[in-house]
Specification:
It is a single chain. By secondary structure, the chain is of the alpha+beta class. Helix content is 26%, strand content 27%. The strands form 3 sheets. The chain has a 6-stranded antiparallel beta sheet. α2 crosses α3. It is globular and about 65 Å long. The termini are far apart.
Length: 274
């Protein structure tokens, strides 16, 4: 077990003790003193180490859980959850030149299909399709988990893909089976329509009860939620997908080209010289 140093905890400064302790633990985790999946000392043990009340350590743990650094397993203890998951615009990447899965992502994450069926779609999905609230649509729900087996696989994404029944009725999209290629390629073959453009709407909100349980996070910790709407060449929605990630441990990164400035014209047609 890694020994915790109490250096840097100063009760005479304005910063609350639990925040000072959180700074110390955060720094130790960042430099690798505790690896992902490693259990921290118990709350009473850390209270003794830092010379503070157990309630102070509990506040520290609560803060670091909200930040996504720690995860508490009832009856087992508090563990390091790991580093942030960096998402490099996954939807845009899969539509790129290779039009397929990325090997580096497949090596780190595994998608698990959890259900396929017909349900009343939420308002943001029906709005995207332009159908009345509560319309029954086809939905494929999935989880994305890390392949880290130091303690257990961690769920890092809760997702769902929605389709109009008239587009996929009776096809493999309605069956609980995985495909050996990205879902959108299967949809293109089934519908005969090609994904041409897409719109992503990213927002932050509090998780639903199911999301907080699946992502092993506190219900007062925000999530990042992405609504992805894919259109054909006539701007008709083909698929509306939802992805939800733990906000504090997820960063979205987008790399893109910046156009070069256009050369200025030699003569200004608006200027008349007399």
């Amino acid at each position: 077990m890694t020994e915790v140093s109490t250096s840097g905890i100063n009760p005479g400064v304005a910063e609350y003790p639990h925040r000072q302790i959180a700074d110390t633990l955060r720094a130790r985790i960042r430099r690798g003193d505790w690896a992902a999946g490693e259990r921290l000392p118990s709350i009473p043990a850390m209270a003794t180490m830092f010379g503070v009340a157990k309630q102070t350590i509990q506040r520290t743990v609560d803060q670091l859980r909200v930040e996504g650094l720690l995860i508490t397993k009832p009856g087992s203890g508090t563990y390091v959850r790991g580093t942030r998951r960096r998402l490099n615009r996954l939807a845009r990447g899969r539509y790129g030149a290779h039009r397929g899965y990325h090997a580096d992502l497949a090596a780190r994450y595994r998608q698990q299909l959890v259900s396929v069926g017909r349900e009343a779609a939420p308002a943001e999905v029906t709005d995207a399709f332009g159908v009345p609230d509560g319309t029954i649509l086809v939905v494929r729900r999935y989880l994305v988990r890390t392949l880290d087996t130091t303690v257990s696989q961690v769920t890092v994404e809760v997702g769902a893909s929605w389709f109009l029944p008239s587009d996929v009725d009776g096809s493999g999209i309605e069956r609980a089976e995985a495909f050996g290629r990205p879902l959108y390629q299967e949809v293109e073959e089934v519908t005969g329509r090609r994904y041409a453009t897409a719109t992503d709407v990213l927002s932050a909100r509090l998780p639903t009860r199911d999301e907080s349980e699946l992502l092993a996070m506190r219900p007062d910790t925000p999530v990042l939620h992405l609504l992805h709407i894919a259109y054909d060449d006539k701007h008709r929605p083909i698929e509306v997908a939802q992805s939800t990630w733990p906000g504090p441990m997820t960063t979205l990164t987008e790399d893109y080209q910046i156009p070069a400035p256009r050369p200025e014209p030699d003569d200004d047609p608006g200027l008349v010289l007399g």
